[in-house]
Amino acid sequence: xxxxxxxxxxxxxxxxxxxxxxxxxxxxxxxxxxxxxxxxxxxxxxxxxxxxxxxxxxxxxxxxxxxxxxxxxxxxxxxxxxxxxxxxxxxxxxxxxxxxxxxxxxxxxxxxxxxxxxxxxxxxxxxxxxxxxxxxxxxxxxxxxxxxxxxxxxxxxxxxxxxxxxxxxxxxxxxxxxxxxxxxxxxxxxxxxxxxxxxxxxxxxx
Length: 206
What we know:
Elements: E1 7-10, H1 17-23, E2 28-31, E3 36-39, H2 45-55, E4 65-67, H3 73-76, H4 82-91, E5 96-101, H5 108-111, E6 116-121, H6 125-134, E7 138-139, E8 141-142, H7 154-161, E9 167-170, E10 181-184, E11 191-194, H8 200-203
């Protein structure tokens, strides 16, 4: 018997099938500028918990988000301080994730109780397209079980999760580089949490 597979569409296809998966609390795998990621509705606590179980991700680890356009930032961030605005103007869209104080509407599961949320305006046109099609911020955790190698192809993603995901958007082979740089801008001073595509020296250059 053939293995059950998720619905697979090309990255350049109509993303309309994603709406039903998203609204029903399902999981979508999609290409970013680095690896394949997993998308659920960040405002659906049950969907977020399903994502944690699927990955085997510790509940103490917050899940970052991607936005498809700037107005979405107001849905998830309680405030955007001037130091964050400067980073946004310099590096978005691109591989920079910024930690901000979270809006009260976000489930505590997505923030792991930290009161903050990590977000980026992705450099991937496909990731932005998905977010815009769904008219919502989307989760952007890598599409692999915790401890496994993040996938750079749709085939690798499908092998990890098979029928546990409702839709897989095939963007071909991704570059699989360092991932995004993560900067905490929620406090009085900027802090680099993880150095990725953008070097730390670039963050603090005026």
